[in-house]
Amino acid sequence: MSAFDLTDKVAIVTGSSRGIGRAIAEGLAAQGARVVISSRKQDACEQVAAEINATHGERRAVAIAASISEKPQLEDLFAQTKATLGPVDILICNAASNPYFGSMDGIADEQFRKILDNNVISNHWLVQLALPDMRDRGDGAIVVISSIGGLRASTTIGAYCISKAADFQLVRNYAAENGKHGIRVNGIAPGLVKTDFAKALWDNPEALAATEKALAMRRIGAPEDIAGAAVYLSSPAARWTTGQTIVVDGGATI
């Protein structure tokens, strides 16, 4: 068997109706996992699940909508997953929010709270919900999608960067507490990836050209560029990797 084999593992991927989350869900399914496609809109989730099932076989993916800002919906997400597919083996915390673009001076309290709630607290809730069954089995993989924004300052997305820096520590703390249970908790810090979520950062041709010129790989990322790291961290190949956040950024931070 391949060290990356995920046959019959049950995975929840939040924010997986598009972008990085969808690419990760497709990557996990390609290795044999059964994946739960989850975002706010059920119809969008069902479309992605249907396409994965058409490619990889029936019942490889199911659609369960949930908002990361609503704890009862996340509780229901785990309950429905367990009833439909079984206990969760892999959790990918990918969904996030960034409702503000500009100087920290101008951000409203409610905007800052939304960023912290959706990018940090919701990940904390998700991990809490995954842990009991993982501890019972003595095995599990949790991956939090952070950002290289958590490694440096920004004059335009500062609050988002603060939340992503907090995710680094969330990973470290949960890893320290749960390694004795056989559970691995890691993160991925992508650089700029061509997604709708990050459109404000790549949609200007001149700004994009300047960004890509500064990258060692001379291009911004595609969602599929992040999926491989998520598959690795979810698989037996990473059985001795925990508490780490892997930077995948085309060389932006070197």
Automatic annotation (TrEMBL):
InterPro entries: NAD(P)-bd_dom_sf (IPR036291), Sc_DH/Rdtase_CS (IPR020904), SDR_fam (IPR002347). It comes from the Bacteria. CDD domains: SDR_c (cd05233). SUPFAM superfamilies: NAD(P)-binding Rossmann-fold domains (SSF51735). Belongs to the short-chain dehydrogenases/reductases (SDR) family. This is SDR family oxidoreductase.
